[in-house]
Amino acid sequence: MAVERTLSIIKPDAVAKNVVGEIVSRFEKAGLKVVASKMAHLSDKEAGGFYAEHAERPFYGDLVAFMTSGPVVVQVLEGEDAIARNRELMGATNPKEADAGTIRADFAESIDANAVHGSDSPASAAREVSYFFAATEVHSR
Ligand code: RTP
Ligand code: MG
């Protein structure tokens, strides 16, 4: 296993529910370190560009509308096997299918409002980290 970085977004539904700290605590307890962090209210252009891989999917419009509906917390997590470890903590995309004890099972309402985003591959992680953060804003430790 290698030390990796992954991009996490705590989505508008979870920020509105005031569970940012509970979610970050799960990352920390699993050995993932927060090495960059900011709050943002994404524009249509920022959210649309971030999810560009889904531009042709039927849910794209709803996804962009949801991701711009309120502030989010954007973070870089670092640790051993961080990309897969974060996806395990998150649980399945649809919270109804997410394993008990995962973030989506515990905090998400629906497949649209599903609490968190996490990069799904090393290539995505590299693109997504640099989409939101300059190298000087990531503080490896
Ligand atoms: P994310 O990118 O947000 O971490 O989620 P994910 O990898 O688990 O799922 P992905 O396939 O990348 O889809 C991105 C987001 O689009 C919404 N979605 N809706 N209605 C649908 O069938 C559907 N499929 C995906 C979800 O909100 C998902 O998080
Ligand atoms: Mg995805």
From TrEMBL:
Q: Point out the coiled-coil segments of this chain.
A: none
Annotated ATP binding lies at: 11, 59, 87, 93, 104, 114
A Pfam family: NDK
Q: Which GO terms describe its molecular function?
A: ATP binding; metal ion binding; nucleoside diphosphate kinase activity
Positions of the catalytic residues:
117 (pros-phosphohistidine intermediate)
**PANTHER family, sorted:** NUCLEOSIDE DIPHOSPHATE KINASE, NUCLEOSIDE DIPHOSPHATE KINASE DDB_G0292928-RELATED
The UniProt entry's sequence similarity note says: Belongs to the NDK family.
User: Assembly and interactions?
Assistant: Homotetramer.
Instruction: Kindly provide the name given to this protein in its UniProt entry.
Output: Nucleoside diphosphate kinase
Question: What organism is recorded for this protein?
Answer: Litorivicinus lipolyticus
